[in-house]
Automatic annotation (TrEMBL):
SUPFAM superfamilies with a match to the protein in the record: NAD(P)-binding Rossmann-fold domains
InterPro entries: NAD(P)-bd_dom_sf, SDR_DHRS6-like, SDR_fam
Phylogenetic lineage: Bacteria, Pseudomonadati, Bacteroidota, Cytophagia, Cytophagales
Entry keyword set: Oxidoreductase
GO molecular function: oxidoreductase activity
Entries under Pfam families matching the protein: adh_short_C2
UniProt name for this protein: Short chain dehydrogenase
Organism: Adhaeribacter pallidiroseus
Stated family: Belongs to the short-chain dehydrogenases/reductases (SDR) family.
């Protein structure tokens, strides 16, 4: 399959791209610094990106920022970033990618378990993740010719937890997390959330 991996230089995206390549898929690595480049916070860059890439079998997004800030401290700018980057950026990636998504193709976007397990300072992240899940469930009903859309909700990834000074041991590493993206691409699931094995809401 020819697969766009958005965020292919990031903690999760890098592991996803590597796993897809190991499975024999062709990976088009995409980010603000790739060639061609795409900035999902700038909607005009997305159709231009797909024009250069052409038809694909899968669009996998592991990118997008949302504010990790306590509600009383949130600025208007941080709220807007959460909306334009992780929420609308990924929705626009699916929307503008659809004309280039082959029949039976799949779009995979990234939410996060904070949609299910709220924590302090995550009101924007939880809102965006839940919004992306709602989008996924309804957007699936509008797709034709066997096309699918799925959302992966990763838990904390061990590498990220370590960077944030948290205990990484309860969490899967990026390589294990990438398996959920492979399952999303290779399964026939549509309009549903996908979890890293062992890290579904009832498990954690
Ligand atoms: N890591 C975790 O523990 C965790 C847990 C749950 C959910 N998530 C979610 O998973 C996604 C990826 O997280 P991560 O930790 O792997 O991120 P990361 O390490 O910060 O990497 C982000 C990737 O996305 C690209 N990117 C960032 N902004 C972009 C934009 N506006 N347009 C296009 N590309 C952009 C970056 O490349 P450039 O800088 O070159 O553009 C990079 O390749 C995020 O949505 C995050 O909320 C992460």
């Amino acid at each position: 399959m020819k697969i766009v991996v958005l965020g292919a230089t990031g903690t999760i995206g890098k592991a996803v791209a590597q796993l897809f390549r190991e499975k024999g898929h062709e990976v088009i690595a995409a980010s603000r610094s790739s060639t061609p480049a795409v900035d999902i916070a700038n909607p005009a860059s997305i159709p231009a990106f797909f024009e250069q890439v052409g038809e694909v079998d899968a669009i996998v997004s592991a990118a997008g920022s949302a504010a990790f800030v306590a509600l009383p401290d949130l600025t208007e700018e941080q709220i807007q970033l959460s909306l334009t980057s992780k929420l609308m950026g990924q929705i626009n990636m699916v929307r503008h990618g659809l004309p280039k998504l082959r029949p039976k193709g799949v779009a995979v976007i990234t939410g996060g378990f904070l949609a299910y397990a709220p924590a302090p300072k995550t009101s924007m992240i939880a809102m965006v993740n839940a919004g992306l899940e709602g989008f996924t469930k309804a957007a699936a009903l509008d797709l034709t010719d066997g096309r699918r859309v799925v959302i992966v909700h990763p838990p904390w990834v061990a590498e990220t937890a370590e960077q944030l000074g948290m205990d990484p041991t309860p969490w899967p590493n990026a390589a294990k997390t990438a398996e959920a993206y492979l399952a999303a691409v290779e399964s026939s699931q549509n309009g549903v959330p996908v979890f890293v094995e062992g890290y579904a809401p009832g498990d954690i």
